[in-house]
Write a structure and sequence with these properties.
The structure is a single chain. By secondary structure, this protein is α+β, with helices and mostly antiparallel strands. The protein has one domain: Chalcone isomerase (3-Layer(bba) Sandwich). A hairpin with a 3-residue loop joins strand 9 and strand 10. Helix 2 crosses helix 5. The longest helix has 15 residues.
Length: about 210
Amino acid sequence: MPSPLPAHGLWNAAVLAGALALSCTGHAAGPAATSATVTLANVPFAPQLELHGSTLTLNGAGIRHKLMFKIYAAGIYLPEKAQTQAQANALTGPKRIRLVPLRTIDAEELSRLFLRSLEANADKAVFYRLAPSMLQISQVFTDIKKLQPGDELVMDWIPGTGTVVSHNGTVKSDTFKDREFFDALLSIWLGPRPADQTLKQALLGQPD
């Protein structure tokens, strides 16, 4: 089993905001790569999935690297392809953010960095308006304590219900009903200040 990440250095303030996206051949999973299952570090991302009666398409996927370490694999599923965060936000219907750790992650540290990344990328007025929800989802990570390799952290937007956060298939919190909250979550990876532009491009299905 991979050794735990040191708490002090391998996760920075945008740990959820950026990554180096590589497929098994070393390239981002963009439009041409999503006609079949995309496998990143042995983590499969299906080209499509069903969520709440809708078919979602893999918009893009990649791997978060920090120094020499592979941190997690990430994928975003949308009702149709989007090339910008604004386009992703504007889409109606369910949406999904899926993260699969590739190393042990200290979830309490992750929760602090999660908030910093949200603040860095979300509009300040929105951030303060959504502060209670931000703190609530931060507590979700703290309660998980550690994310282990192969775990699955999923954040779903379901119209009429809200944002549902689950860990290994178990719902971990009350529903976040505000649409702006899921948009703020997307901004972590697709916003104007990601830690690594390469992951943003991968999740938007754009070439390096």
